[in-house]
Amino acid sequence: MKAFYADHFVLPLPSGHRFPMEKYRWLRDSIMQSLPDVDLHEANAATEGELALVHTPAYVQAVLGGQLSAEQQREIGFPWTPEMAQRALRSVGGTIQACRAALQDGLGANLAGGTHHAYADRGGGFCVFNDMAVAARLMQAEWRRKPRTTLRDMRVAIVDLDVHQGNGTAAIFAQDASVFTLSLHGERNFPFRKEHSDLDVGLPDGCTDGPYLAALDEALTQLERRFEPDLLLYLAGADPHEGDRLGRLQISTEGMAARDARVFAWARQRQCPVAFAMGGGYGRDLATTIEVQLNTYRAALAA
Question: How far is CA 116 from CA 163, 171, 186, 195, in A?
Fold first, then answer.
């Protein structure tokens, strides 16, 4: 399985910042040490043309040219620096490459990505550009260029299991029947003003393994009834875990592994390629977050 990283593009965050920038390098090192079947590659930067499939020209230029206002930077949660812009481009590029790998090999991964709070014209919640939205639109464009017996669009399902609702993704695809957005998230968690996904499942604070997995099973059943994807994009956030500082749910390490296994099994049964990104993870003990994310890779390889 090919996986793509860009952890050497590090944001110079102020001391005490709650975003765990170091986890990406730690995850790559852990994969190198324990999962030899994962083939690691440096992520390319997304191009302005690729970003334009989703994002407005004015917003793209503001990010790339260092013209974000103080308010825009506060909403994103990162101060603008050249490293911030480069990391954002590589985060999108990694998911694009993961999608191409998935369409060729069945699986592909981005060690970062999952930037689902970014809208077409603004960022938010540590998300600058929306990697899954850009990748979905680009894969559809590349699909159209290939000779096929059918003229229909590629159908893409985005299964977002980060603890926070994928509000930016939901808004971007609100009027697009070729992309199905599913979000299983903490109902009372950020963002406090939710968008409408094709399927939203809001969970109460303190939700444990049994109700969580039952809700996921029902959501995947509804997805199957309503949509037949050609490509599945999976946002495998580690933040539903009981040890997460921002998650407010109580999903055990075993429950998280069961979650991943269900998603990959669902896709395999339908012979649907899967590209996945890691999304959020803010563990009180960062080693626990890394272990949860390693388990996602283990589940992917096992499937």
Answer: 11, 10, 15, 12
The two tokens of residue 109 are 């991964």
Q: For residue range 60-101, what is the model confidence (pLDDT) as tens digits?
A: 999 999 999 999 999 999 999 999 999 999 999 999 999 999
| 70 vs 74: CA distance, rounded Å | 6
Indicate yes or no: pTM above 0.90. yes
In angstroms, the CA 74 to CA 123 distance is 10
Distance between CA atoms of residues 131 and 137, nearest Å:
10
> What's the distance, Cα to Cα, between the start and end of the chain in Å?
11
Q: Which of 219, 216, 266, 256 is nearest to 236 (CA)?
A: 256
Scored b (16 or more CB within 10 A) or e, 153-180 reads ebbbbbbbbbbbbbbbbbbbbeebebbb
What count of other Cβ atoms lies within 10 Å of the Cβ of residue 213?
Answer: 15
pLDDT, one tens digit per residue, over 166-201 is 999 999 999 999 999 999 999 999 999 999 999 999
Length of the chain in terms of residues written: 303
Cβ atoms 54, 134 nearer than 8 A: yes
d(CA 37, CA 58): 41
Could you give the CA distance from residue 178 to residue 151 in angstroms, rounded to a whole number?
Answer: 13
Of the candidates 110, 82, 83, the one whose C-alpha atom is nearest the C-alpha of residue 5 is: 110
